[in-house]
Specification:
alpha+beta, 14 helices, 2 domains
Amino acid sequence: MPLKPTQIHDILNSKRKEFSTFSQETWHLLQQYRAVLTRLEPEEAALREQLQELPLDVGARLLEPLGESSDGVIPCKLVWQSREQSLSWVRDRLTGITTFAVDGSQIYPGKDLSIPIALVQIGWFENLHLPAGGYEKDTDLDVMTPSELRDASGEVTDQRVNMRRFEMETQKLIDYMKANANRTDCLVFLDGSLVVTFADRYDEENRQFYVDCALELLRASEKYRVPLVAYIDTSQADDLTNMLQHLFQLPESESIHDAQILNKYMEWGDRTPLFLCQRHGILEHYQEQRHHIAFTYLKTTQENFPARLEMPLWMFEAGLGDRVLDWVRGEVIIGGGYPYVIETADQTAVLKAEDRQIFFRIVQDWADQEDLKLRFSRKMVSKARRR
């Protein structure tokens, strides 16, 4: 049965006070954090010295000087009167620059089949940004067997599918960087974070799997000197928040994050200075890359919070920051607020409902041919008949 809106509305009304209290407390704390942003530039020298005395997991450390910033934000000052003007700026920045992104999709194992089986597909998009055009879109896939789907306890889990997808995505990016080594006209996008904090909640084996994938990616970018940007559209990261809390002895909070604090002071195209990520937890397992991930926040739409961008430290040291960030701005303009190259990779990779049906039909026909005892649940057969 469909949801009953009246019931939801009644429950929300009954709990309004709880929501209101949370909102007010968060708002007051947010103002305290925003207030100290005005002290960053005047007190930069003292703050840098203070940061040197704080623990390694302070959250963030300044890489760039704050001289050009105001309230912790470097203004972009790009304004156009029309879409055509903005696209002309993009052509000046991106013509001849190749951008590349990968995304993935999956069909999880379920109880509808008597034999556990899953499908992982990745899709990629390479855009040459040439006047005559030129791009590549393609896919690759893997079918996972029962043994590949079982965890250490022997249980079949969706987590194994997620791990395989992440591995395929990062490996494709690594292969691409290897094939395009030392190119100064190329930018590779990771859709997600280089700091795999989500893996902290997993057991040691699974956590290390994600860390190893991220390490290989960081090392490949540094080895082959191919710029890499990890793009996080909706970030809940609090690295800058933790840095401010330590520097100015502010109350701790789990309800606010960096993008919230910065958003008030940012217009489209603005960014923060580059910071070195000094996050507690997962980075302790990053070996020589522990202190080699830089980040900034970039305002990509007027309505939403800024996106978080992460990149290997070598890019900052090589002086590529401003140039690469203009490439990202260009991709965002083409995509209408989201990098076009990532959006297209997602569309290339996505598996739809009809793909699921095709996959199961192929599996059934193959199982019959190989005389494997594969059975579909009554529920799945019933759904197939109704559709």
